[in-house]
Design brief:
The protein has 72 residues and is mostly helical. The chain has one domain. It is built from 3 helices and no strands. The longest helix is centred in the middle third of the chain and has 27 residues. The mean pLDDT is 95.
Amino acid sequence: MTKALKKAFEAASRLPDREQDELAAAILEELAADERWEAALAQSQRALERLADEALKEHRAGRTETLDPDAL
């Protein structure tokens, strides 16, 4: 455990029980959301590679245009 995390947990341990439980729930939800994102990203790698290959093929064939962010 890093010093920063240990310090944060020590500070959190001084909170009332209800607030500690709310903080714990928020941390666990954030960690679960990160896991879901990583799993979704891992599952989409093949599709992302296919899309990238298609985009490169179109670009090499001259069927793309330069994007002007100011014109959006």
